[in-house]
Amino acid sequence: MQEVIFKDLGTQPYKEIWDYQEQLLKQNVDIKAANRELDNEDLKANTTNHLLFVEHLPVYTLGKNGNEENVLISANELFKQKIDYFHINRGGDITFHGPEQLVGYPILDLDNFKTDLGWYLRSIEETIIATMAEYGLIGDRSKGETGVWLDVGVKGKERKICAIGIKCSRWVTMHGFAFNINTDLSYFNNIVPCGIVNKQVTSLEKELGYKVHMNEVKQKVKKNFEQIFNAKLV
After folding, report:
1. d(CA 152, CA 141)
2. Is 168 among the residues known to form the active site?
C-alpha cells in the first residue's frame, strides 16, 4: 500500500496550482534521475506521491493538442467576465474549472503503482464512478472519450460529469480530473467541452435535484481513491 500525501488547497487561481504541480513533478523526476546514477540501492531516495484537491476561480484550459476553435468566446469577453484562459501541457481539449467543481490532481510516481497509463486513467474514472454510485447514479465510460458519463448508450442524452486530462513524465503524473458537483454549467456554453460536439455536460446537483455538500463528496472520493489505488492518504 502506497502512502499519498493529501492536501485540500481550497479555492485557488489556476496558474498558482499549475506551477505547484510542476514543482512536485520536477522533484520526483529529479529524484528518479539521480537514482539511476546510483548502483547502491540503499542510497536511492524515495519519490513522493501527492493528491491535491482544489476549487479554481473561473478558468478555461486548453490541452496541448487542443483546438482553439473550441473556445467560442472572445478574449475581450473573457476579460469582461473575469475568466482566465490557459493553453496548458496536459492531454485533452478545452474544459472549464470553477467554483463548486472538485478538481483532483494526483502527482503519482506510477513506478510505485503500475506503469500503465490506460490502467491509471481507468482507475481515476473508477474512483468517480464508485463515488457516483453512492448517490444512486450509474457512471459510465464512453469509448474513445476519457472521462465519466451518464447514459452513454442513449443517443442525444449522453452527458459528461467528469473530465480527465493528464501529463506524464518519466512515469510521474500531473493534472487530473474535474468532477462537476454544484458547478454553474452555463460556463460550458462558451466552449465545445473537451472538443466533443452534440453531447451535454452535467453535475451531481443537476442529476440529483439538490445541492450536494462539497465536503461530503470529497470524503467519498478520498475513500474510493484509497481503495482503487490501494493507497493510504496521509
Report:
1. 7
2. no
